[in-house]
Amino acid sequence: MKLARPLRIGILIGAALVVTLLGVLQWPSTAASPIKIGLITDLTGMAFLLAKDNVEGAKMAVDEINKAGGVLGGRQLELVIRDSALKTDMGIAAARELVVDQKVNFLLGPVSSAVRLAISDIAKQYKVPMIDSIGGSRRLVEDRGHDYFFELSLTTRTEAYGQAVGMSKLKGKKMVTISPDYEWGRLEHEGFVQPFKKMRPEVEFIGEYWPKLGEKDYTPYITAMMAKNPDLIWSGLWGGDSIGFIKQAKGYGLFEKIAYMGNTDASSLHALGADAPEGIYGWDRAPAYAIDTPAMNAFVKTYQAKNKDIPTAWTIFGYEAVQLVKWGLEKAGSDKPDAWVKAVKGATVPLLRGPITFRAFDNVSNSPVYVGRLMKDAKYPHLILKDIVKVGVEPSMISVEEVKKLREAAK
After folding, report:
1. Could you read off the pLDDT of 121-136 as tens digits, one per residue?
2. How far, in Å, are 12, 179, 201, 394 from residue 233 at the CA level?
3. What is the model's pTM?
């Protein structure tokens, strides 16, 4: 039976409206969905300063990329942040939630090496690329390394080697060391002592000191070290521990009597203010004031317009981690994890600090270390490193065969 013409027209219009509405109401297509980056970091506890700056850098990069049109034909980046509070169980729970429930495409790791090792195992299990934007235990790329973990910053092997190079230039025959008593502190100590002994075999190590992580009273350590009358002190303390030690040791006149080298990243210098001892030797992973690249200069200008100070290494690495995500996506032309991994493995990537290369086998980067001496500068509200030497870390990187042996032994 034929339908009347007005009825046929009505049905056709209704069908067209249904198709149109379905097109509007259906879930966004893959091409329009955001690329999710899960950032798990230690926003509670002694690592707060580092974690806060790392998050700020990542947010800056995400905002800039999204405003410029996103990636892969207009897809936006979405940053999903979780606090691991220096606790492995919290980090594991956050990683599983981000990967399984939030369906993140990438993971950025926390400050704590122990937490990061646990999260790295989850990244491996679910084949989610993970970028270390802080730096830590060499085991992350050696014993426990895998194809989905990328070391953007430095390891206890590479960064401690840079410190050894810097300290090998100082005069003295007797040395003591102090480092926090947990995995990272022990491995940082190992990474410093082994190459330093080869560079300066005549130097005698006359004492090792191992305060617990988060120690409040360094008086027993300071007095014990000074009683040994060393020429040199190397410190593996970081964050709140480094700040506390320096403040207390300054009161004993330690830095006037003994040549000292320790962590002097900008976040610590901000916190120390007038308590920072002029003349001590220090190192930094990315001192913005000493890196003269067009990308860094533009980044610093943007950062200073908002914050009235220089960005820390942790801010820089947070920004660069998101840069690396974007670069890999565009190189691969896809958001598939294996395509991204293949694109970044062995690649030299243009970042704020300049070109950084990732070794194809273990994804460890050749990020340099900067060593110098704390001095005043009228342009800055706190002391900064001067007479800086940029140390290439390639000589400290163990061979692929050695990494393979470590991984085999760890099975």
Report:
1. 999 999 999 999 998 8
2. 85, 11, 16, 25
3. 0.89
